[in-house]
Design goal:
three-stranded antiparallel beta sheet; RNaseH_sf; Retrotran_Ty1/copia-like; Retrovirus-related Pol polyprotein from transposon TNT 1-94; nucleic acid binding; Nucleotidyltransferase, domain 5
Length: about 100
């Protein structure tokens, strides 16, 4: 390097690129819940599946699913638009008597 007139730093501290560290980091998995539900409909989870690349025969592109934590019983509703989700939830809530 000296023959090319390039000075070499004697800095022994390695350079750490913060963006590289963030890009290589991994999010730790969620811990397993110890919560035990004592009866049906005590906790309901839901998820909305955003638009299906191919609509169903009836034109549905969205799906909302409700899962009971206790029994794992599942209800599936088909939606044409995502804006129908609130009405679907109200319908579900009335159906199960919450």
């Amino acid at each position: 390097m000296e023959s090319c007139n390039i000075s070499v730093s004697e800095n022994k501290i390695p350079f750490v690129c913060s963006s590289c560290c963030i890009g290589k980091s991994h999010k730790l998995p969620f811990s397993i819940s110890n919560t035990v539900y004592k009866g049906p409909l005590e906790m309901i989870y839901y998820d909305i599946w955003d638009p299906s690349p191919t609509p169903s025969r009836d034109g549905f592109r969205y799906y909302i699913i409700f899962v009971d934590s206790f029994s794992r019983f599942t209800w599936l509703y088909f939606l044409h638009t995502k804006s129908e989700a609130l009405n679907c939830f109200i319908q579900f809530k009335n159906m199960v008597g919450l």
